[in-house]
Specification:
Layout: H1 4-27, E1 39-43, E2 45-46, E3 48-58, E4 62-70, E5 73-80, E6 87-100, E7 105-112, E8 125-126, E9 136-142, E10 149-153
Parallel strand pairs: 2-9
Antiparallel strand pairs: 1-3, 1-10, 3-6, 4-5, 4-7, 7-8, 7-9
């Protein structure tokens, strides 16, 4: 016959399992369910030609586009992601045309594909969140891995 302590641990384990299932159901959308808004999250990056965007949420297919900063304003396009389908994407890799240098400020934008599966301007439009704001975020090139998460979301 099992002791009451054994039953207590079984009930605790069942409770923890139920709580974990509820948290996963709330945080992780089921496969095939699209996000309800656009968003982008990126950490400050190290110098070089590679940028990794932490997370992208797209309602429809689109691109992450990286631009330079010129005296506090958005400058030239330095690179863009491949076409991303609607959904949540983690660790999106972008190769820049020009290496980013230490101390530089860059911008990450979301663009919605116009249906031809090729990034082009004019043609593709900047993603707009549910509050009517363009989805964009600035970040910096630093000499160390950063825990500074920069994000734009509705």
């Amino acid at each position: 016959m099992a002791s009451s302590t054994s039953y207590t641990w079984i009930w605790v384990a069942i409770f923890v399992l139920i709580v974990a299932i509820i948290i996963i159901a709330i945080v992780v959308p089921p496969p095939g369910v699209l996000p309800t808004d656009y968003s982008i999250q990126i950490l400050n990056q190290s110098a070089g030609i590679n940028i990794t965007v932490s997370q992208v949420q797209l309602i429809s297919p689109g691109y992450v586009v990286i631009n330079s900063d010129v005296n506090g304003a958005v400058g030239n396009i330095l690179g863009h992601s491949e076409l991303l389908s609607g959904g949540v994407w983690n660790n999106v890799f972008i190769k820049l045309n020009t290496p980013a240098t230490l101390g530089e400020k860059l911008y990450a934008f979301l663009y919605v594909d116009n249906g031809n599966s090729t990034f082009e301007l004019p043609g593709d439009n900047q993603a707009i969140d549910n509050q009517g704001n363009p989805v964009e975020v600035s970040f910096y090139i630093t000499n160390q891995t950063s825990s500074q998460l920069n994000f734009s979301s509705g």
